[in-house]
Design brief:
Layout (H helix, E strand, L loop, with lengths): L2 H7 L5 H12 L7 E4 L9 H16 L3 E6 L9 H13 L8 E3 L4 H13 L3 E4 L3 H7 L17 H12 L9 E4 L14 E5 L13 E3 L1 H11 L4 E5 L6 H11 L5 E5 L2 E3 L6 H9 L14 H7 L3 H11 L6 E3 L1 H15 L2 E2 L1 E2 L2 E6 L8 E6 L9 E6 L2 E5 L19 E4 L4 E9 L5 E9 L16 E2 L2 E2 L4 E8 L23 E9 L11 E4 L3 E5 L9 E6 L4 H10 L1
Parallel strand pairs: 1-2, 2-3, 8-9, 10-11, 12-25, 14-20, 18-21, 23-27
Antiparallel strand pairs: 4-5, 5-6, 6-7, 13-24, 14-17, 15-16, 17-22, 18-19, 19-20, 23-24, 25-26, 26-27
The protein binds adenosine-5'-triphosphate (ATP) and magnesium ion (MG).
């Protein structure tokens, strides 16, 4: 892969870049660029968040600005420190840093309280004592305007008193809320006196029990952006209607005003990208935790063997638009395959072993054959792989009655063992049930290294592992977690979980160099795909996850689309 080609594919449209260029030209923010990534710590990050991370941190880098890491931690009941830790780890792993700019919305609670008091004092906010159901009922619908709450015209003094007592813990959850006083007939329902603060007597993972009222997203977000001097506040399209309240709050208070810009969220085929649904998969044990290699979480992709480089190049490729779309999972696979093709050492692993005995090879002899580590990268060098009389090959590489197009091993056929010798199958040994359990073969000593001096050709080249030297291993073959392209369209997304998304192989044999493979290390198992050592590996018993197969389905999809 040439760099020119990479650059080409890495330059899809990004309308936000244009907006920033124009703002810089007009001096709107004095040439400053300050973005932020503002997750709510209520779950692990997924590949959709990676899009937002690459966008926010990437633009800041590109324009010599900064990107703030900010936790939008205003919902005490769903948030946990574990999520904060995992989010910080994932952002760093993706290759981004926030320097000294790590913030928590909860650090602004006192300031936000002060802003709310100011709104009350200017008649722009009031304490409402309707119940949640009544508030909903009073709100009206898209077709009908809402009705004003009977508490809407409380005096400033009464509002200040009630709000102060809400903070002091005098009332139970739901007894009162603080609302903006805007317009109950606004065409945008969000503007019908949105709630700014609510009572929630819950322990917060950072502020503990200091607060029993918590600010709502629409109040917190814009003011956090303002406090931090953010210039471009990028969020996904579902917040388009919230832009009006974002602007209203900042204008009502007359504070510094960042620009909210919406972009399309990432949707990925055969995946769900909603924390709420991902939490369900974890809690109901459909998967083995947040970092299950089938999960579209950053931690799951990492455990699956994805590299930060591959995820970043995927995020560049998909671009940033204002129209919602569905990205093919095959494009994500293309990105990791491209990266690993350049970097991953090639090794031999037999996943479903079939024993081969080379009858004319001397018993007890071992040859160390030289293997090229990565044909794409000469600097990766070579290694020695032991060859002996008894080997394992892949069960699928032998057929007793092979059809014409099968170029691998069969009775009386000759094939090449990778970098070793030509062998010919002379006999097939079966068990009582008629299953092939062992092959007897002969080898041609003149073909050492894999070529015949007489120019004789063979069509098949098989990978193999010496039986005496092979390392027993477990290999986990993953495929799509869902059977439907868009699980969100299923009545219950859990009903289209793929029952075969994990195939567990417990009797694999790897070449000896893999005995101590470090968790996270990625390899190409020749002919089988890209694999990554799992953290479940134990000394002498490696465990590998299949990252991706070798077949490039993305190229095929593109060809079809061009037709
Ligand atoms: P979810 O719907 O999965 O719960 P969220 O939007 O509630 O996601 P947040 O923690 O609030 O999750 O998201 C942090 C940032 O990541 C936000 O700016 C949000 O817009 C962005 N983000 C979340 N999901 C996606 C996605 N699928 N594609 C792009 N950006 C996303
Ligand atoms: Mg959210």
């Amino acid at each position: 892969m040439t760099d020119a080609k990479r650059d080409d594919s890495a330059a899809p449209p990004n309308f936000i870049r244009h907006i920033i260029r124009e703002d810089n030209a007009s001096g709107k923010f004095d040439g400053r660029v300050v973005t932020r990534f503002p997750p709510e710590p209520n779950g692990y990050l997924h590949i959709g968040h990676a899009k937002s991370i690459c966008l926010n941190f990437g633009l800041a880098q590109e324009f010599g600005g900064v990107c703030h890491m900010r936790f939008d931690d205003t919902n005490p009941t769903k948030e946990e420190a574990e999520y904060v830790e995992s989010i910080l780890e994932d952002v760093q792993w993706l290759g981004f840093g926030w320097g000294e700019h790590l913030y928590y919305a909860s650090d602004y609670f006192e300031q936000l309280y002060g802003f709310a008091v100011r709104l009350i004092e200017t008649g722009k906010a009031y304490v409402d004592s309707l119940s949640a159901d009544e508030i909903r009922e009073y709100r009206g619908t898209l077709k009908e305007p809402g009705r004003e709450s009977p508490f809407r015209n409380r005096s400033v003094a009464e509002n200040l008193d009630l709000f102060q007592r809400m903070r002091a813990g005098e009332f139970e959850d739901g007894a009162h809320v603080l609302r903006a006083r805007i317009d109950m007939a606004a065409p945008n329902i969000i503007m019908r006196d949105p709630t700014l603060f609510r009572i929630r007597k819950a322990h917060h993972h950072r502020t503990g029990d200091a607060w029993c009222i918590y600010p709502m997203y629409d109040f917190t977000h814009c003011l956090s952006d303002s406090i931090e001097g953010v210039t471009h506040s990028l969020c996904t399209l579902e917040f388009e209607n919230n832009r009006e309240i974002y602007d209203w709050v900042l204008d009502a208070l007359g504070v510094y005003h960042p620009q909210q810009i919406e972009f399309a969220r990432l949707n990925l085929t055969y995946s769900v990208l909603s924390k709420r649904k991902l939490i369900q998969l974890v809690a109901e044990r459909h998967v083995d935790g947040w970092d299950d290699p089938r999960m579209p979480t950053i931690s799951g992709l990492r455990r699956r063997g994805y590299t930060p480089e591959a995820i970043r190049s995927f995020c560049e490729r998909i671009g940033v638009a204002r129209r919602d779309s569905m990205v093919d999972f095959a494009l994500l696979e293309y990105s990791i395959r491209e990266d690993l093709n350049r970097r991953a050492p090639r090794v031999m692993a037999v996943l479903k072993p079939l024993k081969v005995v080379i009858e004319n090879y001397p018993e007890g002899e071992v040859e160390e054959l030289e293997f090229i580590n990565n044909p794409e990268d000469p600097s990766a060098g070579t290694r020695k792989v032991p060859f002996s009389r008894e080997l394992y090959i892949e069960q699928d590489d032998f057929m007793e009655n092979p059809p014409r197009k099968f170029f691998r091993l069969g009775p009386g056929r000759e094939v090449r063992l990778r970098y070793a010798y030509f062998i010919t199958c002379t006999d097939v040994i079966k068990d009582d049930a008629g299953r092939v359990v062992e092959l007897r073969c002969t080898y041609d000593p003149a073909t050492k290294g894999g070529d015949a001096p007489d120019g004789r050709k063979v069509k098949g080249t098989l990978h193999w592992v010496s039986a005496a030297h092979g390392v027993p291993a477990e290999v986990r073959l993953y495929s799509a977690l869902f059977t439907e392209e868009n699980p969100a369209e299923c009545e219950d997304f859990r009903s289209c979980l793929n029952p075969d998304s994990l195939e567990l192989l417990t009797d694999c044999r790897l070449e000896p160099s893999l005995a101590e493979a470090a968790p996270g290390a990625g390899y190409q198992f020749e002919r089988m795909g890209y694999f990554c050592a799992d953290r479940d590996s134990r000394p002498g018993r490696p465990v590998f996850n299949r990252t991706v197969t070798l077949r490039d389905t993305w190229a095929k999809i593109q060809k079809k689309q061009k037709k």
